[in-house]
Amino acid sequence: MSGTFTVNSASTAFTHVYAYWRPNFFDESKKDLFVLFSDVALPANANPRDDDGVSAIAGLVREGKVHALELHLDPRSRQFDAAENAAVHHMALSPGRHGMSGMHAFTATTFTTSLLEGTAHTDGPQESDGVKWQYDLQFRVALPPMERPVPMPSTSGPPAAPTRPTPAGARGRRGGPARGSAPGGSTRAPSPPRRRGGTRRPG
């Protein structure tokens, strides 16, 4: 991973990356991918994977201890989320998390449920309330498991091996597939147990 965040001609190198899944703003049954690039290691409680983490990192931003850029990605389209492309965590731009759209560019060479590889940058130098800023990133990030995986074809590697059809007569209860077989011929590994409830996203 390599990248810089330049604000008012002062450049900061990104040295740490964090990836996490959060519920979609408008449909909590869906998961969105967030990838945060920071110039320092974050304390465990300041990882913005939930609302408490968003509040904690905002405190570090106001103290000038953290400068970070957070990509907001839609795993179904393998592109930016349509409502929010990214968020900046930089005191010169905002005292807390500040979501933005329209000035970001993202290209994925690999985007699966376990690996993200690509580039991201602003569409040239930007200016917000008199503050000039831009960023440029190149990264390869292992992704944590998703609680509720979504269908997402791989963009790299050999195609998946064909699955064997369920033998005739091997039926589960009420005419379903045999126990242990995957419905629809899926070859994806079983997902972790679902967590009851959900964390609401900040507005």
Structural overview:
- The protein has a domain at 2-142.
- It has 1 helix and 12 strands.
- The strands form 2 sheets. Strands 1, 2, 9, 10, 11 and 12 form a 6-stranded antiparallel beta sheet that branches. Strands 3, 4, 5, 6, 7 and 8 form a 6-stranded antiparallel beta sheet that branches.
- The protein is mainly beta.
- The chain starts with a strand and ends in a 61-residue tail after the last strand.
Task: Specify the overall morphology.
Answer: globular
- Which H/E pattern describes the elements? EEEEHEEEEEEEE
How many DSSP E strands? 12
Provide the gyration radius in Å.
Answer: 20 Å
Helical amount: under 10%
Described by strand count, sense and barrel closure, the largest sheet is: 6 strands, antiparallel
Per DSSP, what share of the residues sits in E-state strands of 2 or more residues?
Answer: 35-45%
Number of helices: 1
Secondary structural class: mainly beta
Low-confidence stretches: 162-191, 195-203
First and last CA, distance: 29 Å
Q: Average pLDDT value?
A: 82
